[in-house]
Design a protein that fits this description.
three-stranded antiparallel sheet, alpha+beta, 10 helices, Cytochrome C3
Length: about 325
């Protein structure tokens, strides 16, 4: 009962069971096809299922054991021909559903199929192309969570859950590994009284992005009382100047990935730092004429623009920022 049927039919080799890099070999998602006169295919998030649910979903939860470590196509044994059906050998569609229902038991009879399948009428109304599609998981609240850590000098941690999901575009599995989805998700919306316990247990989810081992950074999260101030770019050590303030986050951060800290070197985004081609006034400092023909590296050692420039390569008696190679422009 392999969810990888469609990939096998397309000529994709299924990963070996004992591979050390098994997560790298698992397809991110798989299209489970059904007759489109009834429903469109189901988009099965295969890789996500390997990270979540109690102790992770093992291959054997869905796949038959394969001694050689290679999973055979479902259709090698399962078909949709009624003549092939038996108690020991369900049809292909039945095999799919049995595997899913082993974990997903929270169904509502009013729309049991629509929990996973998008029917043609819905696709037309939503202008969704007839491709692998499944209804998105319901949004999870609350917007803000307050965690009490009584053993800390500053016991209160304010966690902005909505901001991490919508602004930083984190996937659930970024923080919630090895947890049962239905602790947070119910068919018709968020489950009642759901509180994310993983964050209460330890720093592990936070440590993926935050320096939780740095004893000097504790007060960035641990406060004496709940805080209402949300994220500002100043917190990153890279306050936005008047030009960057006008840009969308995705002008610098990859729109296809969760937001992460960038190298502050300007050349991550800007490639026109050549003598005579870059307007230095855009940085807020208009160079005096004597500096306009200097190469960037004369002041910015190794062309690293995220640290203050040096003057002593040419001027023994001058230092930045007390002495400027130009005139500051008003914001």
């Amino acid at each position: 009962m392999v969810f990888s049927l469609l990939l096998l039919l397309a000529g994709t080799t299924i990963f070996a069971q004992e591979s050390e890099n098994i997560l790298d070999q698992i397809p991110e998602s798989i299209s489970l096809r059904v007759p489109q006169v009834i429903f469109y295919p189901v988009n099965f998030p295969h890789r996500a299922h390997s990270h979540i649910a109690p102790e992770g979903v093992k291959c054997s939860n869905c796949h038959h054991y394969a001694e050689d470590g290679v999973f055979d196509p479902c259709a090698d044994c399962h078909t949709n021909d009624p003549a092939d059906f038996s108690d020991d050998l369900p049809t292909l569609f039945s095999a799919y559903h049995r595997v899913c229902v082993n974990c997903h038991r929270q169904w509502e009879p009013e729309n049991v199929c629509g929990s996973c399948h998008l029917n043609p009428e819905q696709a037309i109304l939503s202008k969704t192309p007839p491709a692998a599609q499944a209804p998105p998981a319901p949004p999870i609240g609350p917007d803000i969570l307050h965690f009490d850590t009584p053993k800390s000098v500053n016991p209160m941690v304010t966690f902005r859950h909505k901001q991490h999901v919508e602004t930083f575009r984190f996937e659930c599995v970024t923080c919630h590994e090895n947890q049962d989805c239905v602790k947070c998700h119910a068919y018709n919306g968020p489950a009642a009284s759901t509180v994310v316990t993983k964050l209460l247990e330890h720093h592990t989810p936070c440590s993926k992005c935050h320096a939780t081992e740095d004893q000097n950074s504790c007060t960035k999260c641990h406060q004496k009382a709940p805080t209402e101030r949300g994220f500002t770019h100043d917190m990153t050590g890279w306050p936005l100047n008047r030009f960057h303030q006008k840009q969308a986050c995705t002008a610098c951060h990859d729109p296809e990935k969760p937001v992460e800290r960038l190298n502050p070197t300007c050349t991550n985004c800007h490639q026109n730092f050549e003598v005579g081609e870059f307007d230095h006034a855009r940085t807020g400092l208009e160079l005096f004429e004597v500096h306009q023909d200097a190469d960037c590296s004369d002041c910015h050692i190794d062309r690293i623009f995220g640290v203050p420039p040096t003057c002593d390569n040419c001027h023994d008696e001058k230092a930045f920022p007390a002495d400027l190679p130009g005139e500051r422009l008003a914001n």
